[in-house]
Specification:
This protein is an alpha/beta fold. It has a domain at 196-303: Trna Endonuclease, Chain: A, domain 1, CATH 3.40.1350.10. The protein has twelve helices and nine strands. α2 packs across α10 (179-208) and α5 packs across α6. The longest helix is centred in the middle third of the chain and has 30 residues, at 179-208. The protein starts with a strand and ends in a 9-residue tail after the last strand. Residues 137-145 have low confidence and may be disordered.
Length: 305
């Protein structure tokens, strides 16, 4: 059930192999965030690990400095044991954490060849640290000869955080210099939270579609476009959508952009879904209906009901 355990201030920290929804429910149950903005933001960094105590009203950076950095050496030793400590593995994991997850860009970041990189990926997938999502060639917009890179995802949010912000600059952190981490995390925090927000949105949509259940949902990408949401329901309807973890309300232009992306890749969508941290403009809300669904953070309560 677990693949990584170490003791933190007398408590056992456990890196779970549970899926995203199960990890989020465990996190919410353990720490009882006061709202779902807190829940999503803290889960994006600390999810998948059973921490002893956590005050989720504090900022992520405060919690990182109080809960992770003081125990850096212990965590690093256990992460190294989990990954076998091979520099190539760590380079690839950092490439995934800091990039778009595509295998070709990951190998470029890690400065390794396709053959060597894929061997490493297969071994890392076997450990359960990461999982590979293959390009979905059943999508009608794909051509048989079109070469589209596969994507890689971390099985737990905490490891993604570790390899994005800690592992690449471990020497400074080891020596007690946290300046670079603070700067890097502050600059990229909102962007970093986007992926867990998308993954939780997938889980929410699976729960929301009751009468016509979603049978398959993922992100979508080809050589032209990327979509946060691409799903098929039991009746065969295509659902596409966008997730935005920003402080601005989404406007009608976001829907127009999504429709144009679908047209560009010949995706015939039946239902559009927009998921927003900060809500929607009145113009966009007026268009809401069976074929356009608008979801905000307050709807995420369904994930833990």
């Amino acid at each position: 059930m677990y693949n990584f355990i170490y003791n933190y201030k007398g408590s056992t920290i456990i890196l779970s192999k549970k899926n995203t929804l199960e990890q989020f429910r465990d996190f919410y149950k353990d720490f009882k965030p006061s709202n779902f903005e807190e829940a999503v933001e803290k889960f994006a960094v600390f999810g998948g690990v059973g921490w002893g105590e956590m005050d989720t009203s504090k900022s992520n950076l405060e919690l990182i400095e109080s809960s992770i950095l003081p125990d850096f050496r212990y965590i690093r030793n256990d992460v190294t044991e989990l990954t076998t400590g091979m520099p190539l593995y760590h380079s690839i994991l950092t490439g995934i954490a800091m990039g778009d997850g595509k295998t070709n860009t990951t190998f470029k970041r890690a400065n390794t060849s396709q053959e060597i990189g894929m061997n490493a990926i297969n071994e890392l997938c076997d450990t359960g640290i990461i999982k590979l999502q293959k390009g979905s060639k059943h999508f009608t917009s794909w051509k048989e000869d079109e070469s589209v890179s596969n994507k890689l995802f971390f099985a737990s949010p905490f490891l993604r955080f570790w390899f994005a912000f800690v592992s690449p600059i471990f020497k400074g952190i080891r020596d007690g210099d946290y300046k670079e981490l603070r700067q890097r995390f502050t600059n990229r925090e909102s962007e970093f939270i986007q992926l867990p927000f998308v993954e939780l949105s997938h889980e929410l949509l699976k729960l929301n579609f009751v009468d016509d259940k979603i049978e398959d949902i993922s992100t979508y990408w080809d050589n032209k476009i990327e979509l946060d949401i691409y799903a098929k329901t039991k009746s065969g309807k295509i659902v596409v959508g966008v997730c935005k973890y920003t402080n601005s309300k989404l406007k009608k232009s976001e829907l127009t952009k999504l429709q144009e992306l679908c047209e560009k890749s010949n995706i015939k969508a039946d239902i559009f879904v927009l998921i927003s941290k900060s809500g929607f403009s009145n113009e966009l809300k007026s268009l809401k209906g069976e074929n356009l669904r608008l979801i905000t953070l307050k709807n995420f309560k369904k994930l833990i009901d």
